[in-house]
Model the fold of this input.
Amino acid sequence: MTLHDLALAAARFSALIAGFVILAGFAQNSFHIWQLLVASRALRRQRGLPETSLVWRRYAEAAPPIALLVPAYNEELTIGESLRSLLALQYPSFEVVVVNDGSGDGTLQALIDTFELEPVQRSYEAIAPCAAIRGLYGSRRQPRLLVIDKENGGKADALNAAINLARAPIVCSMDADSLLEPDALLRAVRPFVEDPERVVAVGGTVRVANGCDIRFGRVSRVGVPRNFLALLQTIEYLRAFLMARLAWSEMGSLMIISGAFGLFRREAVRAVGGYTLGTVGEDMELVVKIHRHYRRERMPYRVVFVPEPVCWTEAPETLQILGRQRARWHRGALETFSKHFGMLFNPRYGRVGSVGFGYILLVDVLGPFVELAGYVLIPAFWLLGILNTEFLWAFLAVSFGFGVVISVGALALEETELRRFPDVKSLAVLMAAAVVENFGYRQINNVWRLWGAWQFLRKQESWGVMTRRGFSRAAA
Amino acid sequence: MALLTLIWLLALGMTFAALSWMSVLLAMRLWHDRRAARRAAARKSVEQALIALLLGKCDLQRDLGPFAGRARLMSECLLEFLSLVRGADRTLVLAAFDSLGVPATLRRRLTRGSAAGRRACIEALAAFPSPETEAALRQVVSSGAPQLRLAALKSIAEAGGHVPLGRVLADLKVGALPLSGLSGDFLRDRVAAEPGEAISALEDDLLPSTLRVLVLDALGSAGDYAALDILAAHVGAPDAEVRAAAVQALGRLKHPAARPHLARALQDPDSQVRAAAAEAVGDAGLDGLADDLCAGLEDAVWRVRFQAAAALRKLGAPGLQRLQHAAREASDVASRAASLALAEQGLPS
Done:
């Protein structure tokens, strides 16, 4: 083979790679634009959200009891305030089941002191596996509160313990530091009231609380984060929740309900044996298991998403912590994908197997490696002089153009249908962020996803340290 | 045109579109902020005027007149206010709205504008019963979306109009009304108003199981003893969910004649029915079935054991004695169910 033949083969190979990357990118961006349109139509259908008093008037009578499941690990300083806020939620019938998951600090004592807890007993059926329960506590002052003290087992294990003890037909999983809107349950339960026969799970919109004023465990004023990373994540959350999840829900293929806030029919959780222990993506895995069960049994069901903001969470403010979180999320997605690989393109699982799992295959499984190939090959081709730089710049410009349109679109959904950001200035800042995030932030995210893929391949199981800075609470 | 130029045009076009979109959003926000401020101010004015009305310090035309033509604003304020006032105050508020011609404004709004606004107007119109209101609401029933139809039927019933149960069931059957928790609530009200019609509906073999369950549940809540026979007949239905609903309804009816049927249900092959039967015995206070409940403490299914223990607790002294006996003497499974039921009440085993 001559040198000329080699150069020709390399040129053909580079053209092939370039063609694949361009096609994959175009398909993915077109899919996102389509999701934007689907989400927009869904939001328009629900235009003119009623005020809390009207929602109460319409739904309170028919609203089923809910058990809020609150796993707590080393939350000594904040658990009292978090629970007071939860116990004051506007909902006709609910209980709060807190799980002290073998905390090493004084979480249990703080709970005992704050709510004057006493040991109680409760009959329950172990429908999901969990570590040994050391004791149950109740309060005469707060009959809605039940505290479970158990050996440490992780979040999934703690949620399973709470599911076992809960008696309400609907369970709501959340994080101990999730901040709920006062009418969150009333708004999120609507799909269960409107379609009680089929709805088995409901995901709620989670928003970034950084930059908001927090008072007594509630967001009292919505604001824009002052931290740059948190600001970029605000746009990212809008895109993930208002655009992607709403569109997936409309397609009947919603594969994930955030662990920060999700409602499930207890019977559905029971049917799949609760959360799977020893996973890092237990929230996604539970939803996939539910899809799998109902599809296999050919039972009618729906997994729904409500776009109204119901829950606020603290976003990481440093690259190191954010990187760990994103790598863990990606590892969770890969774990779920590999565990339920048999669903991929299996006609038995309908759209969930084809579109939902197909998307995970292309974007989560292959995506990072395609990106990696791009990062390695494009400079190599350029060095070899077989890359047409004029086309490279043009395609990069199209790629950024798509990215900006999608981010601005997600912000437009928020602005036209929900309008929770307080003023024009906040909106302008967010718009700038919607443009800026396409230049660097998205690319760093891909590096973290690669890191997550690497951890998955090495079968790393730890969560890593997720340090939270804590909400800066306004003086009471 | 060269491919390269096309690609650049696409990129520039998208960037231009995004920038234009952003500019429009910012401009809209400026406009909306002013509009929202005006809306909030109007709402506050209406609320203050209503409070002044109750204090006898309101000049209707001056304070409320300017807002009388704003259907959604007036309906939402009215609904909120009516949830707070009763009796003479309520009559005063309604008379004030009536004198300003608000009901006519609300009726006109039923066929146009956003669904959320129409729904608020439908709900508010329930407070203004009249032939015109009923006609307007019936118009919505015949042509509106399922959610709006349901709201309109509710308003007609609240305003004293006749809503035949047969019509509601027929609409639910064909999907003209949504089969939801809200329609279940409405059905309960209708059945309470016309239990005889509900009994006739249950005699129809073609009634789907889902609706049958809803009607059985509603009949139990209605408390009409005439339903006893039809409920008892459903304890032997082939569908387990129907049997469970019939058993629960018998429990809520609290009639001693339900005893043999509940005793039969306690032996049902389906655990859902056995659990429902145990609960029903407790609800009906049938202490003659206390020994049957004790047998339920040995059931293989946790929910049945739990309901049997809870029912024994509800029976009072005869049940508690049996629970204490079971806690001491029965098998491990029954003893644990009994002990926990007692412990939950803070009682010794």
Notes: Residues 463-468, 472-476 of chain A have pLDDT under 50 and may be disordered. The first helix of chain A runs from residue 3 to 45. The radius of gyration of chain A is 23 Å.
